[in-house]
Amino acid sequence: MASNSGPKSLNRSQNNGSSNTSNNSDKQVIHTTSSSKSSSGHPPVRSKPNSAKRSVTPNSRAANPNNNDDSEPARVRVAVRVRPRDAEDLNSEADYADCVELQPELKRLKLRKNNWNADSYKFDEVFTDSASQRRVYEVVAKPVVESVINGYNGTIMAYGQTGTGKTYTMGRLGKHDPSERGIMVRSLEDILANTSPTLDTVEISYLQLYLESIQDLLAPEKNNIPIAEDPKTGEVSLPGAAVVKIRDLDQFLQLVQIGESNRHAANTKMNTESSRSHAILMVYIQRSSLGKADNEVSPQDRDSKRSMGNNMNTLHKSKLLIVDLAGSERIAKSGAEGHMLEETKFINLSLTSLGKCINALAENSSHIPTRDSKLTRMLRDSFGGSARTSLIITIGPSARHHAETSSTIMFGQRAMKVVNMLKLKEEFDYESLCRKLENQVDYLIAENERQQKIREDDKEEMEKKLIEYRNSFAEVESSLDARSQLFENENNRLVSENQRLLDELKLQKDRNDVLHDQVARLEMSLKQSKQNQLEGSSYQKMLADTTQMYEKKIAELMEQIEDEHSQIERAEDQLAKVKQMLSDHQKSTERQEKQEIDDLKDKLQKMCQVYDKTVNDFQSLKTENVELLSEKATSSEELQKLTQKLSAEEKQRKHMEDEFYKLKKMVAENVNGNGDKSSTMKEINGKVHPGFGNSLSFSRSFQQREAIPRVSKIFEEVGLEKTIAMLKSQDLEVQIHAVKAVANLAAEDSNQEKIVEEGGLDALLMLLGSSENTTIHRVASGAIANLAMSEKNQGLIMSKGGAHLLASIASKTDDPQTLRMVAGAIANLCGNQKLHASLKEDGAIKALLGMGGSGNSDVIAQIARGMANFAKCESRGTVQGYRKGRSLLFEDGALPWLIDNCATNSSSTRRHIELALCHLAQNDENAPDFVSSGSVKELMRISSESTREDIRNLAKKTLKLNPMFQSEMEC
Ligand SMILES: Nc1ncnc2c1ncn2[C@@H]1O[C@H](COP(=O)(O)OP(=O)(O)OP(=O)(O)O)[C@@H](O)[C@H]1O
Fold first, then answer.
1. Which site in 156, 517, 754, 822 is 20 to 30 Å from 726, CA atoms measured?
2. 372 CA to middle of ligand 1, Å?
3. Do 714 and 737 form a contact (C-beta atoms < 8 A)?
């Protein structure tokens, strides 16, 4: 009930006109604002009357969809209840029909005006005399109770004539029969069931307003309790009243019982049990949002908590007033006198005042006379305020009280027009928050002190450890410095050592290659020597024949001398002696030569062994580079020893030659005395080739150890010209001896020019073309190979069809030695770029590659050398710009041959092949062949795996410069 001093906005009346007729009442509107509300228009409350366990409805606080600042309009709800007829009514044979006609299904009540006329009134509910206490509670009180539990203020009030059942409806305790329990008990039952005994608080005050004095029914000594009003909110409170916290329903029942006993009751004529005071039960509920799970707190509460920075305890404070008004009877009718009259006046005063306020509210008056009585002051919030209010008006059935009944009905009708604005009251629990913060501060202070103590205790220990750590760190640091320096020194040493080893390795490789070439040549010489050795017997025979021829000539001379100087016996004797001496010496020489040959054979055998050992050593050197130095030293030492031995042998041989010439000279001198015949010998000696007998290279000397004494005699006799002429001999044996002699001479550079001049080259080529003898082929090819080392001779060989002849020989034989010689000859020719086209045209390149089919490593080595020579010349020509076009080698299948043989075990051969590939790859016009044949991979392998750094660099450079190779590498 808002007063003029209260907020104007809270004064609302439903402007739907009068409801005293059925037509008007149909226009009434009941406002509902929440979909969660029950059918009665209020949020549901779970009722557990018989349950000892108290629980909170999870969503009970979500009833108000509006936020805290919004108000919700709610009209005062009014129900009418008719008391059953009592004994007096029965005695007077009063009938309802004489006064009211109930239409509960229509929620209407007809008040009979006379026998033919009645007024119909619409209420929110109409209870007949048979309505149960439970139903009345469910319909009238429970919605208000739910609202209060949810934080709104609420009022449930009974208004009616004395004896019509107000106290029965509101205050019945039902101690013996729970079904008899009235609204007070049932309300507390629901409140306790839906609040938390630990988090929420339920308290009550029980008062009566008697003679405009507020008395405390729980503390009767408290009388005339003043009403306090908050000037800002208009909140009414009774600070002097006892407030008792309710633990359970039994406690509440006891308290109410106590209060009832203290309630003043006076007999009146109308009702000896009549209540002469307004009884007011005030229930205070305080609910905390703390300690609840989010699903137990309404969204609004959660939002509110968040907006407060969380952890702020939100308190919902609400108040329920359950008012059992004193009876509203007429003074005259009640017959009250004296004190009772005074009571009645005050009762009527307060009720009249309440009626006026309600009328004013119903008529939307600007003045609400709330201050006219303490009752209206106390109920200020219940009518026109922020509380949800339900009013139950009680009427009797008797027509005798028609006027009171009518008055009561009209009171109820007017009350129905009052609309309150419900407002959720929420405040923060600063007290508990303060307590909590204080506790937290205490805890933090204690924790801080504890931590401080721990830190102080640890500080000294930490400082000690810090000093220790620093010392340790310094030690470690200096140790690290020392180790770092050590590592750096060691690293530098290793780097330089590595570089030195690399240099040494490179040197050793170079030496190895040189040595390998020497060994190859040595091997070739040895093989030739072997061959010569095999043919030694023929030379011996020839020597014997020669000797025999000399003896014959000597004999002839002697006969001539005898004929001419037969008389000179002394001379004959002397000659005989000389002859004897010569004979002896010849025999001796033969023995010596035989012995020499045997010795040379032994030495050759030993040398072969040394050679084999050297080869083995070199093989080991290839795989174990570490042993290279020692092995090479051994080999070199052995070779040096052999060279020295051979040199000694050569000296010995020369010595024997000199002795032999001396003897012959002596013979000659002794024969003719004046040396006339010596001219023949001189002539012979003069025809000896100037190079013959000169100091030769190691290999050359070695080859000639057996042959030279005999060959020298041949040349002494026939000379180079005749020897070359002997190449054309019909006698195969002579041809063979001659070709071998020429071949031996051709091995020496200084002899080559002379050989060519004397027609040796032509003769050799002729032999290649005409002879079918394998030895001739092999030896002649070898000789041509040697001659082909000279650029001048290369041109001659080619111009004389040498390449074609060599190719022809290659196609005829499968003798590896012959093939090796032929391949070597062609390989030498390949080193002359001017001859390339002819070589190709003459089939020499094809023949060269074809010889690889022999599988002989020596032949393959010569082919590889030829390819390298050819490719190198082409590359040089291309770079210098005098050559263009794709390599001539490719047409004869050189590239696949090179790729196929690239993995050879021979390092020398492999090096030649790698060189050939790299040179070929330098010509851009060869690149498509490389790409299409997949040979770029081999170039990539060479660039990273070749044992020769210069070849690796050449391959890298080639790959880098050619875009086709680059794109192929990216693929
Ligand atoms: N609905 C009811 N069912 C049965 N008995 C009832 C009912 N209503 C009232 N009574 C009985 O009627 C009598 C009067 O009721 P009650 O004392 O509650 O009236 P009242 O309106 O409170 O009167 P007063 O204003 O004088 O206090 C009581 O004996 C009560 O038990």
1. 822
2. 29
3. yes
